[in-house]
Amino acid sequence: MSLTETETAFASVHEDALNDVITAFCTSRPHHLAYGSPAFTPVTTVAETAMPAIAFPGVPGGIQWRIRLSIPRIDLFKQTTPLPPELTLGPGQFSAEIDVELCIECRRLKIDPKPPRPPKGREQDKGTPNDPPRDDRRPLSELTCFKLRVFAIGHIEHVLASTGEDAIALAVDAVEIVDIKPDELEAFLECFLFLILQAALAGIRLPLRALRAGAFQLILAVGPLIDDDRVKVRGLV
Amino acid sequence: MAEIIAAIDEQGANTLLDTAINILPAQSSSGSGNLGPFVASYSVTATLTNGDVDLIPPDIIRLVDLRVDWDLHLSFGIDLSAILPDFCLPQVCINIPCVGRVCTPRICIDWPTITVPVSFGDFIKATGDFRLDISLTGGVWRVQAVIVGVPNLQFGATTALLLAAIAAAVTPLLLAIPFIGPFLAIAVDAILLAIGIAGVTGLLGPILTPFVSGLKIPIYSQPQLFPVLPAESAIDPQVAVTIDLIAAAVVNSGEDELVLSADISA
Hints:
Chain A is of the alpha+beta class. Helix content of chain A is 16%, strand content 35%.
């Protein structure tokens, strides 16, 4: 069978090259993988995306949080990278392995004896140096983080890049975190990260032109398809 | 297997080379050459049009009936005295009463040398084999189809038409010469006979062959530091990958295809 089959042009990119392009994207624009509320990320930069704190009554300034994703490592069908038994990589799918770090600023809040009033800022609520030290109390402010390895499977969607070119994006279908108890907590975190990963990976739009290293013009007719560890497209010159 | 593979079939290659050849700039040259016994100075401009592509493994692109459209401006001098017989008005004498015998002098015509400008345009076709040439120069990867050898140019009716154009250019010049009337047909025939088909092909061949024999058709040209996405804002700078290797070949895996392959790194 010819490469072009019934079309006149063909292009394919192996998962190794796809990972190189994703790495280049995430290295140049790391803010797509790092998000934080103002205590962590006051303004959006090339490195991080500033997000609002999680508002909650009685927590002045809201709950401060940060999430950082590693550069995803993509495995295109057929399966090369081991997956948790809960996930099966089917034809036309990719799997992704991503490390996630979630942090919150854990603060001790001071109860105001006066009637409730509008907040005046965080400085009033951090306690005073005269507070008696007590070993069983949390510190005034503590960065609390944990890291997870997340596995996801998904498919590729045909989208337009920011330049208006034909592009692909990684669409997440399912997420799996291994061995968290209770199961409800695992399900909760999986759903939370499912939302995060869908949104984050959808922002990584890779032009098909780049995935064929600029060789030949191709008006897309078939694909993008995942097959034999490659993303394949066919079309007209 | 290469990390990135791009392929086109012969139909795709036809489209690709149509575009690649169409954007080649018109080529020009000038000089002098032999037009039969005459020395002609010329200037010529040529443009190319793609023919039919035949992909031949492992690395040949054959272009059948590659067309070269050309416009030729040439100028050559003809010493008519070398072509036409000497022509003299004989001496005429008459007897005039009271004056005596009066004779006119014998007048001989010196046939001049004329300069003949000819403008002519036509096309020729050639079939050539092109081999794939890959290079990394100045940080740019290039794949070109470079013609192999010197193709045979098919002149067809061009030679006869150019002779007719020369005849059309010579005739009004001759008509302006006094006393040439009876010799006009002789002069034109003599000039065309002197040039002949061989003279035309002998001039056109060396002039037009270089337009084809040195032909390089660009197929691929990309910077080694390949831009995936341009810089879009202060927080979205350019994204680029490095093209480490480019290869090109004609492969038959069911049909003949031109295949470019690349390896990249982040």
